[in-house]
Amino acid sequence: VKGERSGSPPFSCPIPIQRHPRVLMAHGGGGELSRQLAEAMFLPSFANPALEERHDGALLDLTGSRIAFTTDSYVVRPLFFPGGDIGRLAVNGTVNDLAMCGARPLYLSVGLILEEGLEMETLWRVTRSLAEAAEGAGVQLVTGDTKVVDHGKGDGIFINTAGVGVVEQDRAIAPRSVRPGDQLLLSGDLGRHGIAILAAREGLEFETAIASDCASLAPLVLQLLSEGVELHCLRDLTRGGLASALVEVAAAAGLSTVIREDAIPVLEEVQGACEMLGFDPMYVANEGRFVAFVPERDAVRALEIMRGHPLGAGAARIGAVEDDARGVVRMITRLGTARIVEMLSGEQLPRIC
Amino acid sequence: VRFVDEYRHAGAADRLAEAIRGVVTRPWTLMEVCGGQTHSIVRFGVDALLPPAVELVHGPGCPVCVTPLELIERALALAARPEITFCSFGDMLRVPGRSRDLLGVKAAGGDVRVVYSPLDAVRIARDNPGRQVVFFAVGFETTAPANALAVVRADQLGLDNFSLLVSHVLVPPAMEAILASPGCRVQGFLAAGHVCTVMGYEEYVPLAERHGVPIVVTGFEPLDLLEGILLCVKQLEEGRAEVENPYSRAVRREGNEPAQALIRRVFQVVHRKWRGVGEIPASGLGLRERYASFDAERRFGVAEHTEEEPSECISGLVLQGVRKPRECPAFGDGCTPEHPLGATMVSSEGACAAYYRYRRLAHCAAPGPVGSEP
Hints:
Helix content of chain A is 30%, strand content 22%. Chain A contains nine helices and 13 strands. Chain A is globular and about 65 Å long. Chain A starts with 31 loop residues before the first helix and ends in a 12-residue tail after the last strand. By secondary structure, chain B is an alpha/beta fold. Chain B has helices at 2-5, 10-23, 35-44, 63-66, 69-79, 102-107, 118-127, 144-156, 171-180, 193-199, 205-211, 222-238, 257-266, 296-300, 315-319, 351-359; strands at 28-34, 54-61, 84-88, 111-114, 132-139, 162-169, 188-192, 215-218, 243-244, 267-274, 278-287. In chain B, strands 4-3-5-6-11-10 form a six-stranded mixed β-sheet, with helices on both faces. Chains A and B meet through strand 9, helix 8, helix 9, strand 11 and strand 13 of A and helix 2, helix 3 and helix 16 of B.
């Protein structure tokens, strides 16, 4: 962090650290310091033609049957955690929402809300991470904005990203396309992200470090589509976990689903942490997992494609859609008994004993 | 976590359920004492494996549920004070007081923090000498040793900015109160395994003899529960009323003696009010005079605040096993986990919340077909 510059984009923080070791209000004020931040830090990191126009907005050429458009805001604490950080999350989270629409993610906007006093080096690390994640996901960060709030009025960095993608097929990948008999395919084991964040936040000492599963799901979804798998519905399993995603889809589709507890993969370390904290992995957040609803005839092939891809190596068939209009989710427990799966009314809270 | 999976084995569960069906000849009503057991029974559907003659009723062993409303109000009053950092285990945060909960106080600017151990609260006090740190010491005999240790540690460090809001309760007096109540239906107990890990099970022997009830020390996994039920039903069928301990992998007769000594050093037995039940004599713990300076109620003068329960809520009857959650007219309608009338709907270990979460639709309790295996 010596302010040295090597090539484009630079590998160390390009803002002269002796002069500006921390973010000042003026970095969001629209004046010289704002310009410096954009020119030295963001433009070279996110380099792409639309951004280099330095216009008020990005002009994009899009071709496809439809456009998918989504937005999400990221307020994670801590900013850096095993397996990821807020920058990576802000790109992959929005990319994954586009992928769940069956779209090919193309362009993202990045809105940064910085807290006065944030270390410039931290902003640089997050900027690099945004750029790397965008490159990994095959998207361009084409427009953006930076604001600075008073010290104590933020939590370091908040990020909003919005994204557009193109839909290259005519199917509606949505709850209304779900049909009785559809099979539920889960792309991998549950709970890594939530437990990694909790462990990093609370200083819980686990014997094994659990890393977040944060990843772009677009390549796997696009492969399923290109190989002709009839995807009826997709859901990524973020906050609220698998349980909340399934409850939402069942209610929106007006069709019940049934899942088998013993078919749901959970890493031993994650299960152990959950047992200790009184959490249910069904409700713990993920950032690189999704569930696909596919017709029975495509299920075996879809599962093979998923398992053959690094993003879906741990994929499993976990249940099916029933011919039942109550729109609830039932679980067959390990003991062979049945129960309802509900949404949580709030966050999971660690229990007393 | 192989040690957990082994105790969730479907084949072994079926064999135990078969054994229970083999010994039962009459209807029996058993109470599992601990809320953790209730949660496990409903989550895994253990009761669905039992013959109809064996009924489980859910006991008072949920510390969140039995903490009286007035202590919740005292906690809310303390947490709202600007000089106080209020530390609590997570599941107390959503317990409703009269008009709000601790999460609401936090949202309004109160310094409310979730900790995983009372020693974390001691650390916060040590690192923030300008703040008054209050820890909400809630729980049964299980959490008492760690809370006692926190007081000893704070005393050793000479901290004058650490205190406990104590709401400790004891299991045997509650069992005694249930057995003595006129509506009592309980014929046998599954004693709370974790409590016995600390306290041993000697103290249940006079209870079993006096009331003629079998008491079986029981763990929390499906197989532990089924084994406890089997032994309890066997005793009832054979006319025995003994204390048995199949949970020997965690519980010894004498319990954890150093932990008990720590409890005795810091706490003394006091009368306690139980939410929904009322005052039970000698049913809780309070700080000894030697450690009275760590008593938040004294330090901040909130001990006088009293509060009565809303009359609609039948959580007291649910906690005593007299009524089932679904027998409450407000269940799932006027009372849900989002808008709980009483604490049995708040804690995940409360019987009402467990029923709501897993049993809201009665017809969903039956197993149905599932897609073919890949």
